[in-house]
């Protein structure tokens, strides 16, 4: 009698990484606030865990390529969720923009973001920078898709490296929350900026959400930026990509600077 093969249940590396991130951030959330205040965040995590387990179990039974693709796609799509979620976690921590603004003032004697938007005032320049910023999404997603279909042997390593870099940045965002000059300047007023006065604002952005034109305010646009790092990691994780990324980042990096540092300030 032919034996029925046992299900080969295993997690992909990116799934294990995601589970580790969920564990770390869950501990951080519960440490910063009580369970009653973070119930929605816990429910989101429960749903995500259930989907990861279900897809892994289904794949162990059927062993279909389409399910394997779906497992990777689901993990990749979660990046869209993890980034804005850092805002919800940052609500329990005081804002640190005043520290970065003071460091800028000590290092340069002025505010680079404020000077940037005063110097580059052309509309066509803003449009060019916005186009450069858009390349960020094409580079990351396009690289992952290209490697999956053309160089499958490198895919798991490449995807893991990219995802790991994102998680590191998100953990930094959670530990050291800032909004960046595009929001902090508006909160404290232009006169304070000109005078070199950078007051603490506590959890101002949690209490004044209308001041933030998008929910994902928590990008550490002055302290560290995942856009630069993710593109750098991508270009150095697989040699052929390095030559492609070598010619694109100039426009991309200037676009990110304009978008994160001074976009709303420059109008």
Structural topology:
Elements: H1 13-32, H2 39-62, H3 65-77, H4 79-90, H5 97-108, H6 112-119, H7 123-150, H8 152-175, H9 181-188, H10 190-195, H11 204-207, H12 226-237, H13 239-245, H14 249-266
Cα gyration radius (Å): 21 Å
Main beta sheet: strand number and arrangement?
Answer: none
Provide the residue-averaged pLDDT.
78
Helical content class: over 70%
Query: Helical element count?
Result: 14
Quote the distance from N terminus to C terminus: 75 Å
Shape: flat
| Percentage of residues in strands | under 5%
Unreliable residue runs: 213-224
Give the ordered list of helices and strands.
Answer: HHHHHHHHHHHHHH
Find the structural class using helix and strand composition.
mainly alpha
Structural description of this entry:
The protein is mainly α. It contains 14 helices and no strands. It has helices spanning 13-32, 39-62, 65-77, 79-90, 97-108, 112-119, 123-150, 152-175, 181-188, 190-195, 204-207, 226-237, 239-245, 249-266. Helix 1 runs parallel beside helix 8 (152-175), helix 7 (123-150) packs parallel to helix 12 and helix 8 packs antiparallel against helix 12. The longest helix has 28 residues, at 123-150. Residues 213-224 have low confidence and may be disordered.
What labels describe this entry?
267 residues, mainly alpha, 14 helices, flat
Task: Give the structure's gist in a few sentences.
This protein has 267 residues and is mainly alpha-helical. Helix content is 73%, strand content 0%.
């Amino acid at each position: 009698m032919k034996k029925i093969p046992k299900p080969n249940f295993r997690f992909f590396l990116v799934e294990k990484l995601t589970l580790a991130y969920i564990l770390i951030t869950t501990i951080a959330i519960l440490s910063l606030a009580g369970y009653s205040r973070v119930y929605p965040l816990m429910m989101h995590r429960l749903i995500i865990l259930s989907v990861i387990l279900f897809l892994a179990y289904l794949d162990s039974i059927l062993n279909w390529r389409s399910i394997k693709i779906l497992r990777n796609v689901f993990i990749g799509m979660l990046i869209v969720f993890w980034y804005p979620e850092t805002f919800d976690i940052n609500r329990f921590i005081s804002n640190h923009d005043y520290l970065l603004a003071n460091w800028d003032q000590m290092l340069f004697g002025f505010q680079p973001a404020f000077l940037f938007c005063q110097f580059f005032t052309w509309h066509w320049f803003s449009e060019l920078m916005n186009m450069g910023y858009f390349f960020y999404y094409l580079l990351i997603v396009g690289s992952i898709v290209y490697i999956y279909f053309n160089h499958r042997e490198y895919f798991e390593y490449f995807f893991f490296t990219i995802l790991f870099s994102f998680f590191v940045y998100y953990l930094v965002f959670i530990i050291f929350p800032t909004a960046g000059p595009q929001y902090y300047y508006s909160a404290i007023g232009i006169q304070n900026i000109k005078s070199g006065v950078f007051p603490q604002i506590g959890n101002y952005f949690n209490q004044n959400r209308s001041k933030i034109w998008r929910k994902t305010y928590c990008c550490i646009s002055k302290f560290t930026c995942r856009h630069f790092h993710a593109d750098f990691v991508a270009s150095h994780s697989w040699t052929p990509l390095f030559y492609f990324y070598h010619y694109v980042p100039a426009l991309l990096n200037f676009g990110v600077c304009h978008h994160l540092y001074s976009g709303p300030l420059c109008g």
